[in-house]
Write a structure and sequence with these properties.
The complex is a heterodimer of chains A (292) and B (357). Chain A has 292 residues and is mainly α. Helix content of chain A is 66%, strand content 3%. Chain B contains 14 helices and five strands. The chains are: A mainly alpha (292), B mainly alpha (357).
Chain lengths: 292, 357
């Protein structure tokens, strides 16, 4: 009797892992296919897609597609632009949204309740509904640069950065986190004569590691994967980010090997980064669900 | 909490000011501009001054009417047949320069159906493509919201069991979420390819060649479905994680009590897990609905709204007009319509799922 039940347990365990594994295959196979295909010449790539070789690095393997991709489009420029725009936006967003969250939670000032509710109300505005009027707006905004005052923000880095620095969700996440910090700590510091700036820098920020990571990861994902906005505001390739750069690859005769090389190039580093910081990524998505 | 601290208007405004100004300038202002532009003929670049046009943009987009026509009869009163079906007067004679029906000018047939006897009812729209875009978007949302939420819950329950190495599976299921939807769309274009696509080869192999290859994205009856399947594949991990965090808020003592009482697995789910996930369920439904209404990148990369407008969507139309044709006012009007739809649906969802006390 005991033997049979032990066997059963083993079988059930095996079934569980089989189900989990099968589902895992559904989620990874396109990504494996992408990376493997990027190493193969077009003809072999299409032939291999008929069998399991599609998922294996076999046959005529080389990095030729990568070299060709660099020749077809200014890939290095696209990558540089994406890294610059994403990096600057994430940093400014952490600074400005955490300061706002601090003011909303710890400082008592006139208008704070009303403003916080207005910021929260903006969460129901999908970006898609404001993109078109914003396009017209940024086309006419002034900018002070090295050439004095110029009009129109199109084809620049700041048009990709400034509109995305502050958003309701990020401010809200900071507010939620700060509410759970021990208020007595801040009160005591005030009594001892610390300035607001000192409290922010020396007490609150050092306690905010988890929320800073969460906000940074969410902003990073949004910014690096931006498509619609940069598509509309950057006509010059000098300012285009990686996702818009994809357009260079889907012209009439699609060279799939090169496409897959470019896709791998812009995706694999992000996947590696994700797998390295997996727990933080998942925690940051989970935190967007802790509402109401 | 803050009432305990000294009042400091200057500090408050100084620290919250930048974020408030940016959100006011780049979220709230454009939203009001959208409403304003939608009542004008504003273009991105135009030599003519902008004029107020009232509801003209909305009339162009949403103008729908029905028209019931009797078949053509000859002098004897018999129905004229053409190719084995009754012949109807041509719609064109009514919608083009017809002085008797100025209200029908510029309208096109959207679809028609028979209404008893020989008469036929035609539904005409001023903008047939936009009507199709609205219908497609609704189909997308109505399929994606429950299916994605349900699959995500299934995955969350699967991942929530105590097993060695379960975190590896969680990490894998979540992987497509960090990949850009643009990349995913382009990748799946090759998977869905009509000739050498991975999917056709797979289906052919497992059915021993019985399933013929399908041009998934090139066929009006499969294109939207293919985009739906891919979109769920990409985003389901996101909502799995949110369900998972909901599951972990349920007190383990409830499960222990159920185990002592000898509750079945279904009973545990029905009376402990599901009630504990109530708030999470409401949130997930609202978030998926909002995200689904924004459907754009997949369309732009995979089908451009085709074939035969079978994958046109509201946002794709807004961008095509506002950016492609530089018609800011038309694009803004579509944006406002989208906002009204999203807002009404989330209000309805909130009302339907309200706490009954």
């Amino acid at each position: 009797m005991a033997l049979i039940s032990a066997d059963n347990r083993g079988l059930r365990l095996a079934t569980r892992y089989a189900v989990l594994g099968l589902i895992a295959v559904i989620f990874v196979f396109p990504l494996v296919f992408m990376v493997m295909s990027s190493l193969k010449p077009d003809q072999q790539l299409l032939q291999d897609s008929g069998n399991l070789r599609a998922f294996l690095p076999v046959g005529d393997i080389s990095l030729n597609n990568y070299t060709a991709a660099f020749q077809r489009a200014p890939v290095a420029t696209f990558v540089f632009n994406s890294v610059l725009v994403t990096g600057v936006t994430v940093l400014l967003s952490l600074l400005i949204c955490s300061a706002a969250g601090f003011a909303f939670v710890f400082v008592n000032w006139k208008g704070r309740g009303v403003l916080l509710s207005i910021l929260l109300a903006t969460l129901i505005l999908p970006f898609e509904t404001i993109a078109i009027p914003m396009l017209l707006m940024v086309a006419h905004l002034p900018w002070i640069g090295t050439e004095g005052i110029t009009w129109g923000w199109l084809n620049s880095y700041h048009v990709q950065i400034i509109p995305f620095i502050a958003d309701g969700l990020t401010v809200f996440l900071f507010v939620q986190y700060f509410k759970d910090l021990p208020g007595e700590l801040i009160e005591a510091a005030r009594v001892e004569g610390a300035s607001w700036g000192q409290i922010y820098r020396r007490i609150v920020m050092p306690l905010s590691g988890p929320i800073l990571a969460t906000a940074a990861i969410l902003k990073f994902l949004v910014m690096y994967n931006q498509y619609l906005w940069p598509l509309m505001v950057t006509q010059e390739e000098g300012y285009r980010p990686v996702m818009v750069g994809l357009q260079y690859f889907f012209q009439l005769n699609v060279a799939w090997g090169e496409v897959m090389a470019y896709l791998s190039l812009i995706t694999v580093p992000v996947l590696a980064f994700y797998l390295y910081l997996q727990k933080a990524f998942i925690a940051s998505i989970a935190s967007t669900g802790v509402k109401g | 909490m803050a009432s305990k601290f000294t009042v400091s208007n200057r500090t408050g405004w100084l620290m919250a000011g930048p974020a408030v100004l940016l959100i006011a300038g780049f979220v709230i202002l454009p939203f009001f501009l959208a409403i304003g532009f939608s009542f004008t003929n504003q273009r991105l670049v135009s030599p003519n001054p902008t004029e107020f046009t009232g509801l003209e943009n909305y009339r162009q987009l949403l103008g729908v009417t029905t028209l019931t026509l009797e078949p053509v009869r000859d002098e004897a009163g018999a129905v004229v047949m053409k190719d084995g079906a009754p012949e109807y007067p041509s719609l064109r004679s009514l919608t083009r320069n017809n002085p008797d029906r100025p209200d029908l000018a510029g309208m096109r047939e959207w679809f028609n159906f028979s209404t008893g006897g020989d008469s036929r009812t035609y539904v005409l729209a001023r903008d047939v493509v936009f009507m199709k875009a609205i219908v497609n978007t609704f189909i997308f949302v109505i399929v994606v919201a429950p299916v994605q939420a349900g699959l995500a819950l299934g995955l969350a329950l699967l991942i929530n069991q105590r097993l060695r190495g379960i975190n590896v599976f969680r990490a894998i299921y979540f992987m497509p979420v960090v990949v850009s939807i643009v990349v995913v769309s382009l990748l799946w274009r090759l998977i869905y390819d009509g000739q050498s696509g991975l999917l056709n080869n797979l289906l052919g192999t497992i059915s021993f060649g019985l399933i013929p290859p399908v041009d998934w994205l090139g066929n009006p009856s499969t294109a939207l479905g293919s985009i739906i399947a891919m979109s769920i594949w990409q985003a389901v991990g996101f909502h799995m994680v949110i369900w998972l965090s909901g599951l972990q808020t349920i007190s383990p003592t409830l499960y222990e009590a159920a185990a002592i009482e000898g509750a079945s697995k279904w009973q545990v789910f029905r009376y402990i897990t599901w009630p504990g996930l109530r708030n999470t369920a409401v949130l997930i439904l609202i978030v998926i609905t909002m995200q689904a209404f924004g459907l754009f990148a997949q369309i732009d990369v995979m089908t451009n709204g085709g074939p035969l407008d079978s994958t046109q969507t509201i946002v794709f139309q807004a961008i095509e007009r506002g950016y492609g044709k530089q018609d800011i006012s038309g694009g803004s009007a579509i944006s406002v319509i989208l906002f009204v739809i999203v807002l009404s649906i989330s209000l309805i969802q909130r009302w339907l799922t309200r706490e009954k006390s």
